[in-house]
Amino acid sequence: VTECVQRSADIDLRLRNLGNLGDVYFRGGHVQEAMTCFQQQLVQAKAAGNSRREACAFHMLGQILDKTGQHDRAASHFETALPLYRAIKDERGEAIMLANLGDVQRKQNRFTEALDFTNQSLDILRATHNRWNEAVVVRQLGQIYLDLREPDQAAEQFQLAIAIYREVDDHYELARTLHVLGDTLSGDGHTER
User: Fold this and answer.
1) Cβ contacts of 175 within 8 Å, gap of 6 or more
2) DSSP letter string, 108-131
3) Residue whose C-alpha is closest to residue 149's, from 107, 99, 116, 188
4) Less Cβ crowding at N or C end of the chain, within 10 Å?
5) What is the DSSP string of 42-65?
6) pLDDT grade, residue 5 (50/70/90)?
7) Residue 163, Cα to own-chain centre: how many angstroms?
8) Could you tell me the sign of the dihedral formed by the alpha carbons of 95, 96, 100, 106, in that order?
């Protein structure tokens, strides 16, 4: 399949298809194949001077590294993608990289850094009225507070995320967040609120 993707003479189409194929492999649990696609996308995007696809490749390579527990390497990829997104004025990409950096820091118990990156991400998402991504990052903020053993702060963030998920009509993420809120409240001794 990768060979078919590589045959396209249209470089933008080829880069997009490499990214799409990498996504399919990643979602299907084929990590090595996904890495290969994104590495090829990265090399070709750099050669073509396509900063958007280069940023996307670094982003996805970082996602894969994060999911495989290689948090420092993932952070390095997110840090590389961040100025690329800023250079092309992609505020959503910038906010997502900041959120990813915050989550990587949280996983390494670097909570001050995690809060800083996550709050920077939220500032951008709120300024650009990106409500769905705001809900994702607010829930992430709740997880940071939960890890800090501040269940009241965590519950407050989960409740805010729930309100946004209701607003954007995302029942799946609403259910996931309600579950996390329930676990949070029962874990800290609260049975009702």
Assistant:
1) none
2) TT-HHHHHHHHHHHHHHHHHTT-H
3) 188
4) C
5) HHHHHHHT-HHHHHHHHHHHHHHH
6) low
7) 21
8) positive
Residues above pLDDT 90, as percent of the chain:
88
What does the pLDDT read at residue 6? 57
**pLDDT tens for each residue of 140-167:** 999 999 999 999 999 999 999 999 999 9
Amino acid letter for position 124? I
- Could you give the CA distance from residue 62 to residue 103 in angstroms, rounded to a whole number? 12
- Measured between alpha carbons, how far is 38 from 36 in angstroms, rounded to an integer? 6
Placement of tokens 């650009």 in the chain = 128
Report d(CA 22, CA 185) in Å as an integer.
39
Q: Calculate helix-pair angle for 171-187, 131-147, nearest 10 degrees.
A: 20
Using left for φ > 0, alpha for ψ between -120 and 50, and beta otherwise, residue 189 falls in left
Q: For residue 126, give both structure tokens.
A: 């709120």
With contact defined as beta carbons under 8 Å apart, do 76 and 101 qualify?
no
Q: d(Cα 132, Cα 163) in Å, to the nearest integer?
A: 11
- Nearest of 122, 171, 168 to residue 142 by alpha carbon: 122
